[in-house]
TrEMBL record, chain A:
InterPro entries: MetI-like, MetI-like_sf, UgpAE/MalFG_permease. It comes from Reinekea marinisedimentorum. Belongs to the binding-protein-dependent transport system permease family. UgpAE subfamily. It is a multi-pass membrane protein. This is sn-glycerol-3-phosphate transport system permease protein UgpA.
From TrEMBL, chain B:
The lineage of its organism: Bacteria, Pseudomonadati, Pseudomonadota, Gammaproteobacteria, Oceanospirillales. GO terms for biological process: carbohydrate transport; glycerol-3-phosphate transmembrane transport; glycerophosphodiester transmembrane transport. GO terms for molecular function: ABC-type transporter activity; ATP binding; ATP hydrolysis activity. This is sn-glycerol 3-phosphate transport system ATP-binding protein. SUPFAM superfamilies: MOP-like, P-loop containing nucleoside triphosphate hydrolases. GO terms for cellular component: ATP-binding cassette (ABC) transporter complex, substrate-binding subunit-containing.
From TrEMBL, chain C:
It is found in: Cell inner membrane; Cell membrane. The gene is ugpE. It is a multi-pass membrane protein. PROSITE patterns: ABC_TM1 (PS50928). It comes from Reinekea marinisedimentorum. NCBIfam families: PRK10973.1. The lineage of its organism: Bacteria, Pseudomonadati, Pseudomonadota, Gammaproteobacteria, Oceanospirillales. This is sn-glycerol-3-phosphate transport system permease protein UgpE.
Amino acid sequence: MANKRVQFSHPIIPYLFIAPQMLIIAIFFIWPALQAAYLSFMLEDPWGMSREFVGLENYQYLFNSAEYLYSFGFSIVFSALVAFLSLGTALILAVKANAVLHMQSTYRVLITWVYAIAPAVAGITAYFIFNRHIGVMYDFLNSLGWQFNPEADAVDASALLILVSVWKQIPVNFVFFLAGLQGIPKAVREAAALDCANERRRFWTITFPLLAPTGFFLLVINITYAFFDTFGIIDTLTQGTPGGRTTTLVYKVYQDGFLGADLGLSSAQSVVLMLLVLSLTFVQFRFIERKIHY
Amino acid sequence: MGALKLSSIEKTYPNGHRAVRGVSLEIEPGEFLVLVGPSGCGKSTILRTIAGLEQLTGGEIHIAEERVDERLPAKRDIAMVFQNYALYPHMSVYKNMAYGLKNRGVSKEEINSKVTEAAKMLQLTDYLERKPSQLSGGQRQRVAMGRAMVRSPKLFLFDEPLSNLDARLRAEMRLEIKQLQRKLKTTSVFVTHDQVEAMTLADRLVVLNQGEIQQVGTPKEVYHQPANIFVATFLGAPAMNLFEARVTSANEMTLNDGQTIQLPAEMANRVEPGRNVTVGIRPEHLALTQNGQRPLLNFETGLSEELGTSQLLHGKIAGTDCTLNLPHFDQHSEDQLGVVFEPKHLHLFDVETGKRIDHG
Amino acid sequence: MKKISLIDHIILWAGVLFLLLPVWLLFASSTHTVETIVKDGLQLLPGSQGFGAYKIALTEASGFTDVATGARMLLNSAIMGLGFAIGKIIVSMCAAYALVYFRIPFAQLLFWIIFSTLLLPLEVRIVPSYEVVSQLGMLNSYTGLIVPLIASATATFYFQQFYKTIPDELLEAAQLDNAGPFRFFIDILVPLSRTMMAAMFIIMFVVGWNQYLWPLMMTTEESYYTIVMGIKSILSVMREARIPDYSVAFAMVILSMLPPVAVVVIFQRWFIQGLVDSEK
């Protein structure tokens, strides 16, 4: 940490300033996190009356459970698709918004406002539109000959989840891509215009590589988003239906721990997720910050 | 009665870097002292230890006979003007100047009269309600000065305060600072790497290199009698020309290529024959031969540069790069010219130590 | 040149419509009668009923929840959004101040503890967190809704980074001006952070308002329901295969979006700044 040349030194005051944060972290973060780690080695009877140390049994059960392994795979495919589609759409919009001379700020407002919509609200909005009873899109897709039925068909349900998750994440990606594009120095753009007449070629050889740091950073953000922040969308749209085929890892933690009241199993899942986030953070720090640097 | 006294102060950073190595100095009341040296020479560190922004690792600092090196910066009765001014961007000019007084519990009326007075002196009266961002570079500089003045401290510290200004404004502000200091008679320590600033502002000059004092003296002394090769080449632009030579007799030296130079009269018999020396002469003290004058040295001509008031002629003497600063010079086509100089303008330095070999 | 620009605009409008249309459909439909919607589905054009459904959604406690009116849930959401944003900004500004401006032993350790909160989002540790809050007797309280969410340290890093960009000389000048730690914080640092605070406020308000899972678990008393979680009750009506009062349901959804969307649109500049800075 590069700090100030000159700092205050005082035996008490700095601790007064940092105390509220530390207190909140201790009570509402560290304690529950340790609790989760502890419970992941325990088996609790459904009424919470007794607990028994079972070692790695919860973990063994997890990785032998077809359901859990399915949701592991589903989470990966789901977040890859959400990240890819949302990044792609946002990149196209950002490049176009950066290219037009007029109404740039209007487009920016009209694209970013969706950020303010809660995932749960986005989910319920989609629920209405793709609903069997009143949904216009339901009728439209079926009139095209697609037997669209998210309540029964896992692929349809997943597609719907992905669509809404992509929709909700476009603004964040758009803002960062636009900032990245505008951060490319004017002199570089002008030099590129002199060196390369073909606009498409110029994009792929100059602009796109210069956006790579932004893109990789956003990739991590998007995967994190698809893992954790889509909870509200899933809970309002599919609740894991049909038959658990749209259950992400995070949704499963909630289902097993809160609805299913299997604390040990849910805690073990929390620990696995924590390790996933840890490795994602590691990748972000080591790989991305080192390798892609201009 | 020193206004400021540094007694063998030392500053070693935790990483082992020795920024200041035993510097001792005494400054008279009302004196304008300039610390000058290349970047990394420790001049800013010395200033910051005087201010109390850095802790000493050895030695003592006294201000007006009181030891201050253990005190908090605010308790040393000093004021500092920073390189980037460090004005509080969200406060008006008035509040910027008043803040230090307010924090010391000075009454509203007194603050008002002091700030008004300082503003008048600095021609800032019309700008008191403005924010720093609405001021020009020169005006910001004046506010920084005003903030230091209102407290009537025992000591002003200036940390390269002119380096953020463009050349013209820098010259103007240089003059203003000098006039102001003359008027206020506040003892001042001014840090700069710019030799013109150093020469023009200083009552006394301290040349520093690698955390050690190289020479202390008036600008004239330091320029005309540099204590060593470092000082000789650091001050003056273009830098002093240096040649390796060997004393061959009681009153003669020989250069690498066999050309000889007469020792100055007062140096004759003072340097034992056989000794190796470095001979220095400033570019403006070299001239070309005129009307059949007998040349003292041969000069291989190179490129010339027009400066307006004079010309620089680059070339070589005895195979060593050399520059002449000539008041007027007509393009010559010859590649060999004769050069003359007055022997009293020669500087002699010991080859090993770089120290001046003096007339005594 | 002109042709290319026209294509650009068409693509941009396609994107804008893709984002806008779903919400517009709900809004247009909210001004129709329930009969129209049941018979013909969602409507693209506004209907004859005006904003009647909004009045019902705001004032009538019946419908989806029996105690909480839309107005009450909006108020709770506002308390949650404001409390979260203000609390988080104060707590993290203070913590970052201690980390950047003080020489403290174990600073590195404290930094890593704070950093570790990024590893485990609330969604992941939801069950043990719920247990802790329930043991502390904070279920069904605004404190319980807001404070545990402040544990994550995004804003602390944000302010830490910002403080580091403030020139060192400002603190040095302040020290010469006899300003101690409290004075420097109040007189210099807080006023200098105003834009940063505004930017952070916009983001945190939206994040706080949009909380769904946490209030869902924390609140059993309907008087604490927030509007975002309140819409869940619309769903339970539909899942039980009953027909809800569609126009009122749509109005409720639109109402739940309105405040955060307004904040983001009105304070667009700060929002963009906050978003770009806070994610770093």
